[in-house]
Amino acid sequence: METVNPPTGGPGLLTDRYELTMLASFIADGSAGRKAVFEAFARRLPEGRRYGIAAGLGRLVELVEGFRFDASEIAWLRREGVVDAATADYLATFRFRGTIEAIPEGDLYFPGTPVLTVSGTLGECIVLETLVLSVLNHDSAIASTAARMVTAAGGRPEDGGRAVIEMGSRRTHEEAAVATARAAYLAGFASTSNLAAGYRHGIPTVGTAAHAFTLAHDSELAAFANQVEAHGTGTTLLVDTYDIPTGIRNAVTAAAAHGATGPGAIRIDSGDLAEEAAKARALLDDLGATSTRITVTSDLDEYVITALQDAPIDGYGAGTRVATGSGHPTAGMVYKLVAIEQEDGTMRPVAKKARDKASVGGRKRVYRSTRDGILAAEVHVVAGPPPDGFAPAQVTVVDHGTVVHRPALVETRQACASALASLPAEARSVTDGVAWLTPVVLTPATQGA
Amino acid sequence: METVNPPTGGPGLLTDRYELTMLASFIADGSAGRKAVFEAFARRLPEGRRYGIAAGLGRLVELVEGFRFDASEIAWLRREGVVDAATADYLATFRFRGTIEAIPEGDLYFPGTPVLTVSGTLGECIVLETLVLSVLNHDSAIASTAARMVTAAGGRPEDGGRAVIEMGSRRTHEEAAVATARAAYLAGFASTSNLAAGYRHGIPTVGTAAHAFTLAHDSELAAFANQVEAHGTGTTLLVDTYDIPTGIRNAVTAAAAHGATGPGAIRIDSGDLAEEAAKARALLDDLGATSTRITVTSDLDEYVITALQDAPIDGYGAGTRVATGSGHPTAGMVYKLVAIEQEDGTMRPVAKKARDKASVGGRKRVYRSTRDGILAAEVHVVAGPPPDGFAPAQVTVVDHGTVVHRPALVETRQACASALASLPAEARSVTDGVAWLTPVVLTPATQGA
């Protein structure tokens, strides 16, 4: 039997063992209840990237709410010697009662930006580390990539751009696929092929047929006739199984049998897409199918989409490259202790000194300023008020264990579009660049306090 | 409220919409019950790779067994217009009753190798496509990468190599993390940091402490004393939070307080690892801690591990690079219809002609030959018997809906080690190369039949 224990519903074990080992040590020496602050941030953006899009918060909040350990899991942890009896008791009644503040989902982040700040007891903060990072690193990598593809397509469809459809499910883990669809949608994709993403998150789903559909029929025309019969003339016909011009003629013929000048759209999934799209447009127009749209797919990314901007294309399907972060499949965020309660009740800033991984101690509040609607600066303030003209960039998401921020995905999607619009065109460029903004850390020393 | 519908237990919706759209068309024209054969294969290996390791089969089999659509999901599919009434009825009672043959998990694959062959009705084969590819593409990408890291470490610990620990959970989606740990373990990793992987799959888990643990204490020595107190002198102490030589001295002091010459191991997570390991070994020996092992972590991959082979290191922790496939996060397999039943009951071979994505029609049986224990050739036979001296490479996994092949993960892990041992050293090299073996397709024409 392959599975030893079936997965439980709870996310508690989606955790690195050392979180629980550390918890056991803290419980043993009485420090698990000390107050602590942790920050999740990326030391740097992926090579060539100019900004990051924070994503995953909505999923994370639900996972934190459900973060429990059931009896079977605790028995296993005991049997394996991961935790002692005292730690097992702690986990049996565990609920996160701390506070989470974060950059809202869909908003920008830069090197060092505290994307998520967790404050609570040392014990409850430490056990969340792995889950926080798994969710933020995956979803932010996808959203950051998707935002570049949407930019290359001229923005969201509602902003005048061409639709980009997420269809990468088969290129990534089956559950990562659902999160990928969600992250791409919030970054401005029009829709997804993934049904679970539609069911769970209300994301529009699309999809018509694969090459297998045509191959399963005795002829391409028979396949198209069947598809139009079953799904109406508004359907999208995949025309490149055999020969594209013949495919287009068959598509128009199949639609014509139902009184339409052409199908809703054709899809081309191979060849030189710019050239094939131009030839397809000319042929469709020639055949009178002037309102038939052209969708292209096949290893599209932000660079290919940019190169296709002058081709007569109405929509793009992005698969592998969006699901794998277009070369950067993880956001590289880390989760670091920045302050710990002292014996006297005050908070002590802490920081790692390791030469290539140094961090700044103290809890950092994030503020941003804009000039003429364009993001101008970001500061991280360790103590005291922000400089004049700066507004807080984090929101309170969980307040002492209660979720207080749970926007609908459409709101998050709008927030992302607004955030991208707050960048100058240069910062949105998909060409290689450096972080458009370097946040400044204001410590009591640099503030002259 | 962020979630529209909570995830259901079943994997049915982890599927691209077009699978169900095609199913609806097939049901409408009466062809859903025609017999069909689909093959999952990679057209090519990722750039530079010499072999692939097939992985995910064990997970996939359980997902196929549970592939159902519950009432809530079907109601949603109807509401969204994804399926019509007849298709909804079909899905309500869906169970996969077809046959799956596959390259056993942990075994090798090359360009074009039918890694998985599904035969059954057109309807039941088509709805599995997305799930088959999600699982195989993710898990095979990880296992193929992990096998290279294990090779760089000199093989599995039981084969004389240095232990490689999987610790990439925080760099990938939280569920992909569990599958990553599983794929890495079957490819020869010694253990994982991921607790769910231990709980669900019985994989050994390890983990001790992060930098936060040291930072949370008033001094490094206090942290180490606490850890040794809670976990014994066999624990691994992370010595690079502040200054490595001081950290090592503190580690030995903390162990000495409990009568040991040193802790079980120290971990170094920053700096020039070869240099730091050499200095650490010299210092440990100097302090009498000659049996304290040295583990290193920090962006390790097959190249860094190779470069560290002469350093006095006892174990490696690999994170980001194994969880993201070391530059190749997906295996790029596709799932193609290769044969379909005709009106007269015979099977017609089918193939796509698109110029850059052409495929060979007909169901291909996979056979391999060895010479002196080394894999010598692979043929794909469309019809007739294999050439002399060739043995079948696929096994029957599901026989008309019944799972008949469910090896324990330890067996799969042994199979992978044996498969790697069947490659010549040159083919196992982690340097860039081309597929070590190019399978030959034997069609009735090429067989002279």
- CATH second-level architecture of the largest domain in chain A: Alpha-Beta Barrel
CA-based gyration radius of chain A: 25 Å
Major sheet description of chain A:
7 strands, antiparallel
Strand order, biggest sheet of chain A? 13-12-1-5-3-17-18
Domains of chain A, number: 2
Topology at a glance:
The structure is a homodimer of 449-residue chains.
Chain A: H1 17-28, E1 35-42, E2 52-53, H2 57-65, H3 71-79, H4 85-92, E3 99-102, E4 108-109, E5 116-121, H5 122-126, H6 129-152, E6 163-166, H7 174-186, E7 191-192, H8 195-201, H9 211-215, H10 220-231, E8 236-238, H11 244-256, E9 265-268, H12 273-286, E10 293-297, H13 302-307, E11 315-318, H14 320-323, E12 333-341, E13 347-349, E14 365-371, E15 374-381, E16 391-392, E17 395-399, E18 402-403, H15 409-421, H16 425-428, E19 440-442
Parallel strand pairs in A: 6-7, 6-11, 8-9, 9-10, 10-11, 15-19
Antiparallel strand pairs in A: 1-5, 1-12, 2-4, 3-5, 3-17, 12-13, 14-15, 14-16, 17-18
Helix pairs in contact in A: 2-6, 3-4, 6-7, 7-8, 10-11, 11-12
Function (chains A, B): Catalyzes the first step in the biosynthesis of NAD from nicotinic acid, the ATP-dependent synthesis of beta-nicotinate D-ribonucleotide from nicotinate and 5-phospho-D-ribose 1-phosphate.
InterPro entries (chains A, B): Aldolase_TIM, NAPRTase_N, Nic_PRibTrfase-Fam, Nic_PRibTrfase_pncB, Nicotinate_pribotase-like_C
Enzyme class (chains A, B): ligase
